[in-house]
Amino acid sequence: MINLNGTRSIDKFLEKALYDKNYGYYSKKNPFGKKGDFITAPLISPIFSEIILIWVISYWVSLGKPKKFSFVELGPGNGAFCKTFCRTLKKFPDFKESVQIYLFERSERLIKIQKKNINDNNVTWIKNIGQIKDGPVLFFGNEFFDSIPIKQFKIKRSRIYEKFIYFKNDKFKKFIFKKVSKKTIQKLKELNLLRKKGVIEYPQKGLQILELITKKINKLNGGILLIDYGYTKPQGNDTLQSLKSHKKNVFYKNIGKADITYLVNFKLLCKYLLKRKLFLNRIVSQNFFLKKLGIIERTEMLSKNASFKVKSDLYYRLERLLSKKKMGSLFKVLFAANNKNKFNLGFE
Ligand SMILES: C[S@@+](CC[C@H](N)C(=O)[O-])C[C@H]1O[C@@H](n2cnc3c(N)ncnc32)[C@H](O)[C@@H]1O
Known about the structure:
By secondary structure, this protein is α/β, with parallel strands linked by helices. The protein is built from 14 helices and 17 strands. Strands 2, 3, 4, 5, 10, 14, 15, 16 and 17 form a nine-stranded mixed sheet that branches. α4 packs across α5. The radius of gyration is 21 Å and the shape is globular. S-adenosylmethionine binds next to α3 and α5.
């Protein structure tokens, strides 16, 4: 049992529920796949990872095929993406010679699972963005930001309050709202997050990581490609959501046994990246991005001469990735880069 007794801000609560060394969700469970709590795009179809690799190679070509190139996967989960990435890489010897692959992961348990699944000597695990020394560098994260704890606030009678959660005898009791400091108000103002109605969600920790990433990009040249579940028009919704065995769960129940995420505010990320003088493509949906990169043509190629069973499986998985009612439109794609190279493949 995680000891949650007492009062914690939402981000501190999430930090404990998800990443507590002994009892946190990501330290205890292998949450991925059919038997886990959710399925991510690389687990739905390896074609997703192949397509991203093609995009990464095209980016490298656009930079003039630099002899040294760092590729950093943020939050690799169970390593499914990287496994396909490394396997497919063998078909592109020039790029393989140049690329150094880094995996940025904090969960010891997931690192063990990743090492077992990937089993490749060219991959280096890092816990610190500062460990990347060679550029250009490309960061890639699929469902990375939505797993980093956020803070929540609300405005009542012109006063700003932060939301806290109170536990007693290991049970959820109530939410508590506390007045915030002037410094916090200033921060929320700077980020244009203040709104009179609804919930204010502030991904403080996520932005701290983004700050380290943008510094690296500005220093070494490169960019960041992010795919995540999120929105471009903030509505003031409470977007915290929890899943256990693919079913909805109240986020303060089954702690340590259920995943908790939130919807990424892409408008905020764009504002943040532009302020740091990065070039930014427009945000597109996963459907738009994958189609532009030829995912349908690739599936057609693979399904030629395949049995009916294999064919229907390939198209079922393709539909899951592209469906406008689900992943295809709920997942958004962002690419920001150092101004030296305005690369827009998949976005125009
Ligand atoms: C939802 S999973 C994403 C899985 C994977 N990218 C995929 O598509 O299957 C989130 C991942 O981010 C990792 N993570 C979360 N916060 C992190 C942090 N601050 N530093 C490094 N990794 C983190 C988690 O441990 C986990 O591997």
